[in-house]
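To fix ideas, we quote verbatim one protein's residues and fold tokens.
>
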Amino acid sequence: MSGVEIAGILVPAAVSLATPVVAFLFSKVKQGSISLDDTHQVLNFGLEGLVALRKVINNEISGNIIQKVPLRVYNNWKERVSNIENQVASLNKEYEEVRGKKWNISRKSDLLSEMKKAVNEVVSILGECTQEILIDKPRELAIEEKGVPPIRGYLPLENAFQKILTLLQNDRVKCVALHGQKGVGKTTIMRHLNNHFYDSVGKFFDMVIFIKVPTDDKQTDPQTEDLHVLCKIADRIKVDREGDESEVSGRIQQVLENTRYLLILDGIRCTPDGIWEKLDISKGNSKVVITTDNPLAFKSKYVDRNVPLQPLHPDEAWKMFRNVIGDNLIQDIPNARRICNRFCSCLPLLIYPIASSFKCRQASTDWQSVLDECTSWAQLGVDGLEELYENLKICYKSLPNQSDRKCFHYASLYPANSKIYTRYLVECCIVLGLVGDVDANTDYKALRSRVIDVTLRRLVNFAFLEEGGKMRYVTMNDFYRQFAIYMSSKDSTSECRSYVDNEEEQAFRSASQHHTWVSRIGSRWNSPPTNQNFASLQILLLQKNLKLDQIPPEYFDGMGNLLVLNLYGTKLRRLPSLSGLTKLKAFYLNDCSDLEIESSEIQPLKNLEVFDIRGARINSMPRLERLWCLRISYDEGGDYSGISELHNLEELMVEIEKQFIQQWFNGGENDMTNATSSLEKLRIYLPYSKQFGVASS
């Protein structure tokens, strides 16, 4: 920062947020010098402004209608504010001890010098705070659906799609309802509709908002469903979802005002009346398409036109079954058409996965053994969900080994349609023992690659997962997620007894007593429930809980069997006692930017194998003899010497942010190399900086 030096304090040349502090400084300077008392006043005046500015920005992040993303540079700026705040508190304490005492002139002189340095730091921090430390979360006008099954050539699907397109071009039609039984292809048509307007966004609609209502929502209370849908819309258009229906809908209206949007509500159980009225959709040129199997929904007073969808004709169902498998393989399947008729019920939701599973089988004897185990439902009931699951068992039992099924269950712990990064998914499956036993000779990189290339690829081929980014991540749609939960609930001996995923604390209390896997990803607790028996718990996923800022000190004491703990992206400042987690193998604290960790807090985790603390701060690395994967952020002055004691370490990922790039190349890289030179199996990864796109070596 350029400027001039006044009384030993650097004054910035440019006008900045530091201007009031500089003006106050000038008022205290006399004949080119400044007294200890005046320096003390200037320092605390500047600190008050700095703390007030931090509060304003924090309020802007949490209270803005448009969700704000704090850049990493802001998190670092905030850390500097906290550091100078602690330093000034110490200087103020020393000032109170020496003020008014005429002895110890040397001590006063040293204190004056330290205070001037602190004023320099306050002025510097203020000068570096710009409006660019925050950015609006970008709103995508449309989001393309990947891997959508084709509908061309299947008349009921194609005709319904074309009819909806025609109705949306009618100025007198505001709301269209596509209705039919479960599995008939409504979601597939909506995915095609979304993609149709994705390719022409701006021509017909300014924005396409595709909302998938969860299959497991057994609530038929309109108010409950309305709030759930409103929160999903808020997430989609990047506005704050906190508050009641009125508050959330008000923010949505404000952002979508004067926007011509298409709202697709797929799978609603209640009438769309509440959403319609809360968002005041009657005004403007926006339109709504709903899908439902509930007559109450498609008979709503706001639905202008209904489009019924029937199951495929048996000939078309056989055509779809044959097209999925391929003409070259279909001849090798004995009684293929009879299998299609018996298990698929002319429903695309069953045809595609069942045909895909048969396509992946190696021999006809494999198919026959599965068929002998499975029974089909001749007729689907009104709700039909359980019948669909029962017919789909043929796919589940076609998976050749338990590892495939267990990985399928583990993936279902994540929210529907969310990105599940395969690297982290597989390493958790490894430490849980879901993909076989490991020993001292295990090559974890090779094992991870094999699980991705074989197990996860098979789940994709069976249609249980969808591939993304060349297998960098996978997703699971809501139907298969609920199917996984259904299958685990039917097996009382399964180790995959999972989990609860709702906001009610009492439901969590009950479920946590009986389940071994619990997922609360993205919940809105500021602290977890207490006074429960967690003795059987093996997995606890609490990541992306932006309100979780504290955990009771003894919370983990009763979790002696916990193997995986994920606190990624929470607001924790301190860790509770971890001494009870004697079996913990995977621990995720990445992006806990407010968290400061003491090495002694982690030391009790003797069985830890995977440790991710990118974005958090740790004073030194504890000695963890079984650790094979470590992810950290490089910090100038960090103590990395302890890494040399991690003799089983195979993977070290070092994330380097922009402000430390120069320090890394000026010596940090050598320090890290020296600290890891004795580790024979180690591979070091230097990823791109997430915020700034700085390439690593």
Notes: The chain has a mean pLDDT of 82. Residues 102 and 301 are 86 Å apart (CA to CA). The first strand starts at residue 3 and ends at 6.
